[in-house]
Design brief:
The chain is mainly alpha-helical. It contains six helices and three strands, in the order H-H-H-E-H-H-E-E-H. The two termini are 19 Å apart. This is Helix-turn-helix transcriptional regulator.
């Protein structure tokens, strides 16, 4: 039973992080594979730099950083420094886990 409670807490943190419109927009940008009708590699499509993610969102860089940190803290987004850039992506396992919440058993 303790595992069930921990799992509920983790899911609650995920949904809490996604309840903010800016964080939801960032997450959606990360999970969008590529332009419809084209073929792309999941590994390439899911990785974006912080600068790329912030384009067109009309939020300050510090606010963008805060939102990405919250998504990372909730286990939704992975982050890795690559030189001067920080790359962000959503692990396929995270998407499967979220999808399983809505699958009927």
């Amino acid at each position: 039973m303790p595992n069930y409670r921990i799992d509920l807490e983790e899911r609650a943190q995920m949904f809490k992080a996604l309840s903010n419109p800016h964080r939801l927009a960032l997450f959606e940008r990360l999970v969008r594979c590529c332009t419809p009708g084209t073929v792309c590699s999941t590994e390439v499509a899911l990785r974006h730099t912080v600068g790329e993610l912030g384009k067109g969102l009309d939020i300050a860089p510090s606010t963008l950083s805060h939102h990405l940190k919250e998504l990372h803290r909730a286990g939704l987004v992975q982050m890795q420094r690559n030189g001067r850039q920080i790359e962000c992506w959503v692990a396929p396992a995270t998407l499967k886990r979220l999808a399983s919440l809505f699958a009927s058993e």
